[in-house]
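Key idea: predict the complex, not the pieces.
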Amino acid sequence: MCRKPPGCLADSVKLLAAMTDTFNIRIEKTNHSKLAETDLNNPVFGKVYSDHMFVAEYHGGEWQDVRIVPYGDIKISPANTTLHYASTIFEGLKAYRGVNGETLIFRPQTNARRMMKSAERMCMPPVPEELFMQGITELIRLDKGWIPDKAGTSLYIRPFQIAMDPYIGIRPSDTYSFYIITGPVGAYYSEPVRVKIETHYTRAAAGGTGFAKTGGNYAGALYPALQAARQGYHQLIWTDGKTHEFVEESGTMNLMFVIDDTLVTAPTGDTILAGITRDSILQIARDKGMKVEERPIRVTEIIDAIKKGTLQEAFGAGTAATIAQIKTIGHDGTDYDLPAVESRIHSQGFLDTLNRIKSGELADPHGWIYKV
Ligand code: COI
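Result:
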């Protein structure tokens, strides 16, 4: 539902009605594009945003006032419930410039469905898949000039949903906003990472919100991550909250190990995010005929494998991180250096296959690519 008829808008505002199956998206273009002054060849993750953003409001039990507007600040009540109680969920996905110049997005429908799961856990009304997809499609169509094409770069897409009630009592909100912002990015980690196995602090507990992409999971991880950063680590390997004996995920990415030529990763559950890059790598490994195991992994198994020389590769997998090689694992005061990154044929192969599917260079047997 568009609440402002075209006649209400200032002359400088261009209104293009993008009729879609379900939602009528009002489009207000910026008069001040920042594209010409942006260096797309060297984008830094999370610092630069494209010209427009997508917005939809939920009130009265329905999503409405669906629009694309110039990227800009959001006006919010100081009593806004999200500011106080972290009623927020988000997603991360990427658009690429294909080898033939097309605009390609990697598995956006999977993100839409995961966001609905996060919404359910956080008592939020789900953003329907059609709204999510139409928002991304129209926004990326408008800002496709922002997609960088240098190897290792992409346009990061950040959909997020926040509660909007100006109420500091504790209850689910009646009103929500759904936004999509985008920005050109390069690597999240610019070098192979040093990670510390965390056996004191906990990221997620059984029955908690660890599987959901919700702000509090990340805010709660800042303090332990900062302690580790002071000891020279880029990230943590989180372990289970009950015994700290099992490896879980890394907060910014899922964790994968190659032990004795088998790809091993922890099973997703209520404490581990169901990563889309994780899922894609498992599929690619199976397609290549590699042995894959999704099973609980003891910390002692990793340390023993390093000592015995059977741990060949360790890496993080995530949308932002893509494949982030782990060069050192710290545990109990000892740093274990892993095999040289150059020797890691399995993960280098996964990255190569993923990149070539994402750019349209390789066949897409699982229907992962969405053409805008
Ligand atoms: C992503 O990989 O898209 C994420 O949301 C992780 C975040 C730490 C950047």
